[in-house]
From TrEMBL:
The keyword Secreted applies. Residues 17-134 form the Ribonuclease A-domain domain. Keywords: Disulfide bond, Secreted, Signal. It is found in: Secreted. The lineage of its organism: Eukaryota, Metazoa, Chordata, Craniata, Vertebrata. The keyword Signal applies. Its main location: secreted. This is Ribonuclease A-domain domain-containing protein. Belongs to the pancreatic ribonuclease family. Transmembrane segments: none annotated. Residues 1-16 form the signal peptide. It comes from Phrynosoma platyrhinos.
Amino acid sequence: MLTLLLTCLIRSQVSPQNPRHEKFWRQHQDFPRTKVAGQNYCGTMMLRRRMARPCKDTNSFVHAPKSQLKDICGWAGTHYRRDLRLSKEQLSVTTCKLQGTSHGQCRYWSHTGQRQIHIRCDLSGWPIRFEESNFM
């Protein structure tokens, strides 16, 4: 009985269903990269992912599986500073920066490239924050 209780407690702490984990996935993970008609990837994604009302200034989407991003909290990342982790590998990332608004619509500049990323992980080893200040 004690083993079952302990297992349930551990699973609840590492569950990807945690609201902080889900927010990270919604805001920063897009794998495989979503195909968008035309050239408006950022505008479309920011709207779909509920970051365009109000317009979020900067956001990055990492085009890697959840398992690869979670691994940065462990063996696939290194301590960077304070409580940040730096990915050991470069990942495909699209960064969206707000250019302004037009007729109530957010207009974004986008850049896709390969780079290392900085994330913050919780104590259970799940990503909870993408560090935007270190892009490009």
